[in-house]
Amino acid sequence: MSTLKEFLKELDEESIVTRKMLERVPDDKLDWQPHVKSMKIKDLAGHVAELTGWMSLAFVSEEMDFAATPYSPPVWNNNAELLALFEKELAGAREHLMTAKEEDLDPQWTLRNGDAIYMSITKRELVRHSMSQIIHHRAQLGVYLRLLDIPIPGSYGPSADEQ
Q: Cα 86 from chain centroid?
């Protein structure tokens, strides 16, 4: 199986879990945060929803420079808009993974803020890194939901709430 097909298969599997987690974000708690140094649940959920779009960056750009284009979090105001954002980013990532060629994953990609380089990796590594970020921040979102006493969906088997 090609790397692109493996990435697509993994994205499809992980998107099921991610969607279930995002579906549980409550509209009435968007400003909630577990600690003053933590993101609000709205910001975290929006980031989880947008992260599949970061896979697309591997196929449409050579770098992301926050000095040239400052990061702007996605705008959404309710769960329906959050899920629409996720589905839009997911569709874009799937399209790129289905139409790309293996050699499209070989060039370097850089994340920077002007002269400060945060990472310089292959586009293959960017897709993998994006997948890891989705899983990482999705788990973080699960902790937020647990602290709000919202039942957690299972990720790779049933959760304690589903037994």
A: 8
